[in-house]
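Help! Submission page says 'invalid entity' but I think these are all valid:
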Amino acid sequence: MIVEIPERVRELLERPVLVNLGTTRPDGAPQVNPMWFVWDGEFIWFTHTNYRQKYKNIAHEPRVSISIIDPENVYGYVEIRGIVDHIDPDPEAKLYQRLSERYDGTAVTPADAEQRVAIAVRPTKIHQQ
Amino acid sequence: MIVEIPERVRELLERPVLVNLGTTRPDGAPQVNPMWFVWDGEFIWFTHTNYRQKYKNIAHEPRVSISIIDPENVYGYVEIRGIVDHIDPDPEAKLYQRLSERYDGTAVTPADAEQRVAIAVRPTKIHQQ
């Protein structure tokens, strides 16, 4: 399934804004955490590790929800629902480096590089307000 | 169950910051939306309506997750997991009025006042970073 991304949402996705990623825990409770991301035109990418809770959540339930608040208009927000399409090992933390540069201006290699993964989310539904 | 609220989290809860509320949809997928809130020392209160999706979600799964980004420190965030303790009808939209005044400075009565409800969330777990 390919979903059309409206122009306003594309513009938001180009910007280094913190988003909130919602996942479902294996026991069915929701979990929400702020995340860095980058959009490549097809997938929304997140860096994470292969041992923390969010990884367990998406391994169990690949559907996710991403909330983006427009920094220029707090009444404008976008909820992107999507599904984890695939997860790539990233033992050199290249995605983390890319994201730390995008958000902070400096490419950093994290201490847990060997356990890093790159999570690719495919948008399936866009809700704008 | 009573959970201890750390001082830093109390301070954040006193401020009119937008939070992201995570719920679980009846089909198990997560949903995340920005929300106004107010904290009364026991419950985190949200205004909502009795016909929209989030209401259906919490009627089905009362556990929620609240993500708060510290406006003064984007690396500081708090995730509060909690449970909907009760939902009060609010047909005069008193909570909406209170929240619109807290966030915007003007108490507004919404067009859907008759369907408004006040959702009381009891914190059960605090995760700080």
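Support: the input was valid. A stray whitespace character was the problem, and the output above is from the cleaned input. The helical segments of chain B are 7-13, 53-60, 94-104.
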